[in-house]
Amino acid sequence: MKPVFLCLALVLASALSAATPLPTLPADLVELAVRTKAPRWKFVDHQRIREMRETFALQVTAVAAFQAPDAVVDGKPLATHLAEKLRFFLVTETPYPDGSTREPEAQGGIGGWTHHVPAHALLLAKRTPAVWTQLSADEKARADLLMQALALAAHFCLDDDNDYYVLLDGYSLFHKSWNPNHVEGYVGAIISASLYFGPDELNAFFRQFDFDRFVARLDAANFQNIRRCWTWNPAIRDLMMHGGSIAVSEKQLLAQGVVTRGLGVRNDFTLNGDTLHEPWRLHRAQAVRLFGKAVRTRVIASAEFTSSLMHRATAATESPWEGQMGMLHEFESTDWDGLRTSLGYAYEGAMIDIPTAVTLKLVGEWRANEGGDMLERRMGVGMGDMLFKAREGYRSFSQAKPREYNWEDTLLPIGADFVVALWQTYFAPPPPPSK
Question: In 13-138, where do the E strands start and end?
């Protein structure tokens, strides 16, 4: 009878664990996020502009409103604060003098540094009646349109049937095999889009996609950032609709003239064989790669350069987690110019992963028994190591040049306090130091 009792105990423990409410973000951080203005984006002559600190304040606001929509900050419920932030970029009545509007331009690739967050925020808002009922029918239709655009960008860049070297402007360089900060943002975006619509509905939308009708909807919503991005290179229309090949622009010296091919977006989405029915698998693959290295403090990037701490806080010469698994990918990776070890790029990977991970936890899609517990431990090592290096200052090397990064000057201005607090609140702390 012992096995029966053991199984029953495991089931009860699992049920109790599932019923345990998640912790909540610190009140002072939520107040700071709410008081930070809503983000906006621009697309002007194939140049994108994004407001990163404001974006991660949006994520914190969305998380807080999902958990406590009636909590009041500055005389208004969090649900109202989130609805107002969403409305800011969903509705641009008149374009700015440069022709831009406020929505993410749905370019794909490195645009995912910030584009995953509005996708998460809209998913959380849709699942929070106190927020969703504040949006008008027109604003909800705009939310649907933006989520579809983000999902289409993810499909074009990441689907197993597409192998393009350009983003949806038909110019900017990209490939889905590149470093995590190029890829994981739009994986997060399509995960939230699939949870927002449902995987079958989203795949059906892909199969029925019509470029001209969709662009007409963009015009009607005054989503000029997206429309101008997708029509900057006329070749994009046929590539999205029918697939085919495209050559990298001759102006892009790093991959000049390279021809890549794909089947477009009118098919079901898969990435590495994983489908929209498997959001956890889609995320886990990215997170395992991101937190996938043993911690090292001294990385030899060239004959003349080895990374090191700058001793802004202590006299330490190595990370407390030296040798443990979980170091962020970009502390030991490559770029066009050779080896790279960079605090700045390492943070960029974390700032993309953490909002997606938190969103999955909140909506019940985090799978502790399918690699989630392993990931939490790796995240603890990787985030603890990154924070230590940031507070000490870290002599980095990227694009064949030495660089110096730290918490106050490099990470804090682009929202690291919001991102780190999301990790600290919802995930396991770092394990004991190595020594």
Answer: 41-44, 47-50, 72-73, 76-77
